[in-house]
# Entry
Amino acid sequence: MNQEMERFLNLVNLPARATAEQAAGLLGFSPHEIPILTTRGLLKPLGHPAPNAPKYFLTEAMKELRRDAKWMGKASDAISEYWRIKNNRKGENVPASRCQSKASDALRYAESES
# Structure
């Protein structure tokens, strides 16, 4: 854990709103997992930020969510499912041109052998 996050978590009075990185620290997730939870509807940013704008989250809501075992289970499942789907797509994205060139190379090799 970096020193800045450690300092934030040790504050006596936490600020009312937290950045995505701070929310990740409060909930025990990685900062890159917060957009996944937001997209799945498990975390709601404050206001109506633009898609490319920084997101802020209510600190008190983060405190409640970290004690909610049911929500933590859903959040962990959502992140696991995200990575499972993403990793499954890795093997499927072989460009058609590479498949065709390998097939044609194999065909030419087989013809030259006979």
In short: Helices lie at 3-9, 20-27, 34-39, 59-67, 69-92, 96-113. The chain has six helices and two strands.
